[in-house]
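Memo to structure team: turn this sequence into structure tokens by end of day. - J.P.
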Amino acid sequence: MSYVGRQLPFSFVNREGELAALEAWWSQRGGRAGLVWGRRRVGKTALLQRFAEGRRTIFHTGAGRAAVGELAQLSRQVGASLPGGLRDLSARPYADWDDALDSLAELGRQEPLLVVLDEFPELAGSSPELPGVLRAFLDRAAGHTKLRLLLCGSAVRTMYGLQEEREPLYGRFNLSLQLNPFGPAESARMLTGLAPSDRALVYGLVGGMPLYLSWWDQQRSLRENLRHLVCQPGAPLLTEGQLVLATEVEAGEHPGAALYAIAAGRTRYGQIKDYLRAEPARTLDRLIELRLVERLVPVTEGETSRRRLYRLTDNFLAFYLGVIGRYRAEIERGLGESILDVLVESLDDHMGPRYEQCFRDHLRAEAAAGRLGPRVVAVGPWWREDPPTEIDAVVLAGRERKPILVGESKWTRRADASRLVSELRTKAARLGELPDLRYAVCARERLINVPSGVLACTAEDIFGS
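Reply from structure team:
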């Protein structure tokens, strides 16, 4: 059974900062090259298509063809997009990349031409000489063309590596733009048909990938969405989880196992090492580069602190590995309908840590807007082992990194703010003498008994439109 969602009419939203960066790059004089990269499904193509509107543009997507095939396809696209040239590209396609680039430079001599080489690592795979050819082309074409060349790709490590000093294209890019998944406020703009608390839930399950958010049918219930997106063989999110693990975690040794370990609650380095039965340092570093994993230390301590924890930064991956993964095999065997109730019952446990992160993101946004006071330098969790103490959010200010606010988040529909503040005071005493400390509390829908001066927020504040 195939699933076709009934989403509200979709239009391009968000990415204002990225579009502004592209516009600034475009407005510079002369020809230039830029990089745009990010994980699969993050919306690179949609962004570039939006940016290309009203501009002379050639899009070419690498598909792993042999070089002759890639050049023939590029020739067809140029001929179709810019007809009327002296060269019949159907009869005389580009012979090599030098030929193609020189021709494109000539087409951009009089007026700007945008050329997007999407999935550039695929092109370089079939033409290993391409980065060097591009370097030579950019050097000789400088000042002689208005060609704007964008290299785009999903292989994050490869795209980042193009900028390194040892690589042929080092120093040749005027733009380096990495696209990341949407945060809470951006995701909310794709879920306008839902109440804020339900936007929070959807974000906690599928994360900030635009495609996953678009799959959520805003006219259906939670159970109906989970039934179609998860609880049937070949369901979109079931398949997507396997695809993410197969295509995005090729880093170091045992990357999938490291992700499973963290999702199962083995968040300390030693626990991950014991699970893998191998040193995980290189694997964890690569997963952090991919922004699939985050290394945390208590916010009051430096990066050299030995009290490190690791968490999955991608909400969908955490949901897939930590919740769906327990039942995936049986869902594929047809037990999805029976598992649906169990899945729904698991959501609150999954959502607690996700909502805490949303709370911290909200405090960062408030700090950036100047609403938490001057000179805020960090927002993060804090913990200690003796006695066991955890604070969901601590805000630090000034060069001395003094705590000025502590906060607690609860994934409950209603919470008593007075009780939460009382608990926070006890925990915060372990941070030292802080007479001017402020307090913040967060619940899903409603806070009662809010003391004067306490910052109270709900999903309406974090995910409201």
